[in-house]
């Protein structure tokens, strides 16, 4: 076991194995050993420990992540009451606008999908609860950033930078600051194809009774439907109304 005074090396290595399984779907001790630059016996011990604790399962082709992670993920969404209330609003809003609606939260400087729901005409995307994306590349993430104090935004940008997800992602500090100022003035953010080409979204922050930001609610749709009066008036009005209702429900639950 190695440490740097702050972390435990063996635990970090086990999490490396978990993340490897998440990325590749299946692994053997040999593939883990090669990719993580450890001995095959070390890789085997980590995999067997995870299997013994029922976090991975062994099948004919190798080791896979187990459904116990699903239980942990669902717990993280249930134990915070604001997340439970957000789910109801996400479903309600998606059915009303017939687009894709998501609630996201900030964690370790990234935007995390907590809930999402698709209306009848929604465009499907490669997103799912638990997925982490650069916070500046999503509408909900921009809305969250606009509510954070400048020093908190600085810490996030210093840590993660402003990587481009598409050719339209806000990738400079100047562009980010302009959008954050506009978001504060409008009350909602606009993400123009910053995370998926051809998809436009608007987002609004969700704040708690103490004024702290809890997450962001956003609506996304194809650019040909997210334009003109629908983009400038109808969708923002519905989004801000839903956000206000959610904040009231959180405050008086």
User: Ends: how far apart?
Assistant: 46 Å
Query: How many strands appear in the DSSP assignment?
Result: 8
Oligomer: single chain
Tell me, what's the shape? Answer: elongated
Q: Strand arrangement, largest sheet?
A: 5-4-3-8-7-6
Low-confidence stretches: none
Number of helices: 9
Could you report the average pLDDT, rounded to the nearest whole number? Answer: 93
Sheet with the most strands, sense and barrel status: 6 strands, antiparallel
Q: What is the N-to-C succession of helices and strands? A: HHHEEHHEEEHHHEEEH
Overall SS class? alpha+beta
How much of the sequence lies in strands comes to: 15-25%
Return Rg in Å: 20 Å
The helicity comes to 40-55%
Describe it for me?
With 253 residues, the protein is an alpha+beta fold. The protein is built from nine helices and eight strands. The strands form two sheets. A six-stranded antiparallel sheet has the order 5-4-3-8-7-6. A hairpin with a 2-residue loop joins β1 and β2. α2 packs across α3. It is elongated and about 60 Å long.
TL;DR?
This protein has helices at 9-24, 29-36, 40-52, 68-78, 81-97, 139-147, 150-160, 173-186, 228-251, and strands spanning 56-59, 62-65, 100-107, 110-118, 132-134, 189-192, 199-207, 213-222. It is of the alpha+beta class and 253 residues long. The radius of gyration is 20 Å and the shape is elongated.
């Amino acid at each position: 076991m190695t440490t740097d005074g702050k972390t435990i090396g063996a635990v970090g290595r086990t999490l490396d194995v978990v993340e490897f399984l998440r990325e590749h779907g299946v692994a053997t001790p040999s593939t883990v050993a090669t990719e993580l630059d450890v001995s095959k016996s070390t890789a085997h011990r980590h995999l067997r420990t995870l299997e013994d604790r029922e976090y991975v399962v062994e099948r004919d082709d190798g080791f896979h992540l187990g459904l116990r992670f699903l239980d942990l993920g669902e717990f993280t969404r249930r134990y915070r009451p604001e997340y439970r209330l957000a789910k109801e609003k996400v479903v309600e809003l998606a059915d009303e606008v017939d687009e894709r609606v998501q609630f996201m939260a900030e964690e370790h400087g990234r935007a995390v999908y907590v809930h999402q729901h698709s209306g009848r005409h929604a465009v499907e995307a490669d997103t799912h609860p638990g997925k982490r994306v650069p916070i500046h590349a999503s509408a909900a993430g921009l809305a969250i950033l606009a509510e954070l104090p400048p020093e908190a935004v600085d810490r996030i940008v210093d840590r993660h930078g402003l990587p481009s997800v598409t050719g339209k992602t806000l990738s400079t500090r100047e562009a980010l600051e302009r959008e954050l100022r506009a978001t504060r003035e409008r009350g909602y953010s606009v993400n123009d194809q910053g995370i998926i080409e051809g998809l436009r979204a608007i987002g609004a922050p969700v704040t708690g009774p103490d004024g702290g930001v809890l997450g962001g609610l956003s609506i996304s749709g194809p650019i040909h439907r997210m334009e003109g009066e629908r983009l400038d008036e109808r969708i923002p009005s519905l989004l801000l109304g839903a956000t206000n209702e959610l904040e009231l429900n959180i405050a008086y639950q």
